[in-house]
Design goal:
The protein is an alpha/beta fold and 239 residues long. The chain is built from 8 helices and 10 strands. The strands form 2 sheets. The chain has a 5-stranded parallel beta sheet, with helices on both faces. The chain has a 5-stranded mixed beta sheet with strand order 6-7-10-8-9.
């Protein structure tokens, strides 16, 4: 049996259902390559003493499926289990190999961004801001933001785990210029779902020097409802 278990957004967020599933497992793996955890991983020891780090090669190979054929195996995933295509692919592999599986959901950044006051149903496609390399500076994520703006939809941009804030804002501005998008005030969210969460609403030039913890994401708001605008005004300062 393969269990895909969402950890939620902080060290206390795992559900009772998730905890009970872990007790049934011979091996418990932690997917550790798609997000910067906002807490020390040793805090997960209270969930299980036998957590094994799992990198991309291990998860995207058939290792989990092979093991789940013989015994109960869990993969712990920050947030909710199926927000990454890698994890959906695991389900498909389990089906092909006739391996039973169970998905235990939890909260993710897609829930937590509602704290900004933006209405969830007004978000468009989600984009990912990659870390640029020496000879490779992909800006196509901004095409998604442009499409969203055309339908008055907000754009959630997930930031590569290796990007610091200054670099991500530089990439954002350069890409917006290339796609002829005028960036006004944007929203910066850090460590949502934790006691250290921060939400900022300001122009890019005023956000460069702030101190935030990873993980963080960026939102380019589109046309704001008056209630959205009213709530966002409260985030001009640190919360």
């Amino acid at each position: 049996m393969l269990y895909l278990i969402g950890l939620g957004l902080n060290e206390n967020s795992i559900t009772k259902e998730g905890t009970e599933a872990i007790k049934k497992c011979k091996k418990v793996y932690l997917e550790n390559y798609t997000v910067n955890f906002p807490y020390s991983l040793d805090k997960l020891e209270k969930i299980s003493k036998k957590i094994i780090p799992a990198d991309r090669d291990f998860v995207e190979g058939n290792n989990l499926i092979r093991e789940a054929k013989k015994e109960n195996v869990a993969l712990l995933i920050y947030g909710s289990p199926l927000t990454a295509t890698t994890h959906i692919s695991l389900i498909e592999e389990a089906k092909k190999n006739k391996v039973k599986y169970e998905i235990i959901y939890n909260a993710s950044v897609f829930d937590a961004i509602a704290e900004t006051g933006l209405q969830i149903y007004k978000f468009g496609k989600i984009a990912s801001l990659p870390k640029w390399q020496k000879n490779f500076n992909p800006k196509s994520f901004m095409e998604i933001a442009k499409q969203n703006q055309e339908i008055d939809a907000h754009s959630l941009i997930l930031v590569d785990i290796s990007l610091d804030l200054k670099d991500s804002l530089n990439e954002l501005e350069e890409s917006a210029t290339e796609y002829n998008i005028k960036l006004g005030k944007i929203i910066l969210c850090s460590s949502l779902g934790t006691k250290d969460r921060k939400i900022f609403y300001d122009e890019v030039k005023n956000l460069r020097e702030i101190k935030i913890k990873k993980p963080y994401c960026i939102i380019i708001p589109s046309k704001l409802h008056f209630m959205e605008e009213e709530i966002l005004q409260n985030f001009k300062r640190i919360i």
